[in-house]
Amino acid sequence: MKKVFLFIGLFFALNATSQSNYEKGMQQAFALWDEGKLTEASQLFERIAAAEKENWLPPFYAAYIEILGSFGIKDETILNAKLTKAQKLLDDATSISENNPEIIITQALLNTAYIAFDGQRYGMTMSGKNSQLYAKALQIAPKNPRVILGNAEWNMGAAKFFGQSTKPFCDEIKRAIEIGKEEKNDIPFYPRFQLKRAEDVLKKCEG
Amino acid sequence: MRHLLFFLFAILQFSTVGQTTINGIVTDSKNNPIVGANIYLDGTYDGTTTNDEGKFSFSTSQKGVQSLIVSYLSYETFTKTAEVSSLKNLIIKLKDDINSLDAVVINAGTFEANEKAKVTVLKPLDIVTTASAAGDFLGALQTLPGTSAVAEDGRLFVRGGEAEETQIFIDGIRVFTPYTPTANNIPTRGRYSPFLFKGITFSTGGYSAEYGQALSSVLLLNTIDEPDQEKTEVSFMTVGLGVGNTQIWGKNSLSINTSYVNLAPYLAAFPDRNSWSKPFQSGSGELIYRHTFQDDSILKIYGAFSYSDFDVIQEDINFVDGFRFGLQNRNLYFNTSYKNNLGNNWKIETGLSFTNDNSTLKIIDDLVRNNENSLHFKLKMRKQITNRFKFTLGSEYFITNFDENYTPINNQKIDYGFNNQLLATFVETDVFFSKNLAAKIGIRAENSHLLNEFTLSPRASISYKSGKNSQFSLAYGQFYQQPKNEYLKFNQEFSSENTSHLIANFQYSQQNEIFRIEAYFKDYRNLVKFDTEMPNFNSDFNNDGVGFAKGIDVFWRQNQKIKNTDYWISYSFLDTERDYRNYPMAARPNFASKHNFSIVAKHWIENLKSQVGFTYSFASGRSYTNPNETGFLNNETKNYNSLSLNWAYLIDQQKILYFSVNNALGTRNIFGYNYKNTPDLNGFYDRQAIIPNADSFFFVGFFWTISDDKKSNQLNNL
After folding, report:
1. Which of B128, B151, B152, B148 has the alpha carbon at shortest distance from B140?
2. pLDDT tens across B436-465, in order?
3. Which of these, A11, B123, B551, B614, could form a disulfide with B574 (CB 3.0-4.6 Å)?
């Protein structure tokens, strides 16, 4: 009887520490991110990813930070190194969670970083891919506000380039905001809708 | 009681956990501290980031043997497996990642058009947006240094070599008949549509031991692995129609591309110098099926069929009624390739191609029919021993079966031909001594059944990165090629033709800018000679021909320094002489011009949604023999000049209108002279200039893409 107790006790103890380690780690990473310590945050996510091999969120966030940080980089060597690393992390996330709309739209964001760097070189091939990625994400999650917003933003960019009205996409953005306000998710640390950003995009769209 | 027990256990757990501190410093190979490196024990949460001095320190509750991992962008990841307690005061040196963009690249002789190529000389889009290229990948490559402008031919003449000295490969597998057949003075085009390819590597010398049977150059075309989306593409052109469709389902995709070209309406509107009894028409279809397996291995099956015919009478000084040339050609090409990772850092690539080419030629009143069946099988294995040491080995087998018959008017048919089998094996290693120094060394062995000959071709190249933006390369190689079909069909008592290449290259590149200069020397041996006007049954053949080619190629490209403008400039200097074919002495062949220069520019006009571009090409005169003077190839034509313009207008996301004009100024270029066989009464040989069939060529096309996203267009097809 005592042995059983011991076993249960140990089990709980281990389980409890592991659980809290993950939460503690993730919270700490988000805190670093909030403080603008992007390298530290991304690296912590990477370390968590190395420890939690069945969870797609840590590699997803590590990739996300690398991608955001690559916009505006002028040195091709650094850009390529960052995005190659981000791609590997996204691939890891995809192998854990296939057909995940959050990962799919982040892949589109990674492609956009290449296009933003050299549109002439990457525009033609990557924009085809992106259109396909957003279409796929919308098909899987038609009511995901991040997918709707990402797709609308992407379409706005193309319309602007061709001097067409961005109006048709404003409604899409509004719809994303409405759904985004209502959205609830039980999974801890699941990507959240960035309301303030969405409102900025809407302003750009209408203005 | 239970609670108490649980509590005790928990306490016990924590109290047994002792903390160990892990610390040290991370530096690069030159002992400079690396700031912001990621350090952790694999599979745990314990880790940190290096500080401004490259130092780190963290504590862990882990015990026993653990793996410490140190990673940082552009460096190879470092792993140390040891007892936790021993991980103190570590000095960790990270090695440069040789896959990083700023690492040295072995590139003597090579131009790569690849989206992710480390240094971009040509981008995939350039193939189709270069004025003068007219949607043909061969046209775009002719704006690179090392090529000679032979505008009446259209094929690639590289560094003093004949067109047959360049071999073309699709997905590593040989293409036996890459060019569409044409009449004299009408430039040929590549048979395959450029937009099926995602990457093009054009090597003008010193290439890898993987490629053989090419004396001068190899052109490697790689097809797209996975198409982006389902779409239908329609094009209406002044010269014909095209329809393409791509379907994707699961891990499969199928692309079909068909086109029909008929020059009759164009020739009715803009007659050229020939009289066409049957203007050029051709129909072609291409199909690619791709399948990605669960283990990420890829199978591609590519098939192309084309048919073309025409019948033309061309003015000829030796024929009062003109010279008649008619042709019917059908060509089937089939290529299948498979690549896979075998694990343990082994990679395998294998493929098979089959070609059937059948032509019927009417030359004046004589009839020539020929039929070629060729097969290529290849197996290549690659092992990555470390990040810095790789080796490749492979084997390939070529079979060609060529039959021809000739029926002179009112005469008996004569049959002739040959069967050729060739086995080749190659081994090559890639070694990175550091991020700045790399070498590639290989050897290729070939055994020809037809010639009963065994050859060995060593190849080596080395590159050194001398500064952040500059590098030097050297390459050497021996190259063998069997005599071309034109000779083999009459005689098989040959040995292979041979050349050796020596190349030195300097390259300077930075963001949106590249400069390269390359000097080379080529020594030709065992070239085929014969003693008749044209090779035939009665020719006496031998392998005693020799030759050389030396020169300097310069390339400069700049993008965006002038807003929305991209331009490149190429210059080639070529000094070559050959004593081959029926030459009485060594001389500069007719296809080789001493100076070639071209400038290509493209400018994007935002307001007009248009890309406008021009290509200017210059080539110094070509040699020809004037029988009124003594000597051989004793004269030179005037210089060649051509200015081509193009304009692509994006009507909306999916509709494009495209205009182009080749040789817009209508410069009258002369490629050589055709002399009368017999002198006139004064003993003077009259002559006729060899000139293009039409000075200028106009093209108007409308391209429409239909896809679900309503955004794709065919800009990359133009």
Report:
1. B128
2. 999 999 999 999 999 999 999 999 999 999
3. B551
- Residues of chain B with Cβ-Cβ distance to A78 below 8 Å are 73-74
- Cβ count near B280 (within 10 Å): 23
- List Cα–Cα distances, B146 to B84, B135, B403, B555, in angstroms: 59, 21, 34, 10
Least Cα distance to A89 among A61, A125, A128, A52 occurs for: A61
Closest partner residue to A162 among B42, B198, B609, by Cβ? B609
Residue B167 neighbours by CB distance under 10 Å:
21
Please report which residue ranges of B58-98 form alpha helices under DSSP H: none
Joined together, the tokens standing for residue B405 give 């018959």
CA neighbor of B691 nearest in space, from B23, B151, B95 = B151
More confident site: B346 or B192 = B346
* Distance separating alpha carbons of residues B541 and B530, to the nearest angstrom: 4
Interface test with A, best of B228, B469, B604, B611 (most A CBs within 10 A): B228
Is the minimum CB–CB distance between A124 and chain B shorter than 8 Å?
A: yes
Residues of A within 8 A of B74 (CB-CB) are: 77-78, 81
B350: Cβ contacts below 8 Å, ≥ 6 apart: B337, B338, B339, B378, B379, B380
pLDDT of residue B13: 45
Amino acid at B123: K
Picking from B281, B280, B279, B224, the residue whose alpha carbon sits closest to that of residue B257 is B224
Which residues of chain B are within 8 Å of residue A14 when distances are taken between CB atoms? Answer: 13
A1 contacts: CB under 8 Å, gap ≥ 6: none
The string of pLDDT tens digits covering residues B209-254 is 999 999 999 999 888 887 877 888 888 888 889 898 989 888 899 9
Q: Is pTM, for the whole model, over 0.95?
A: no
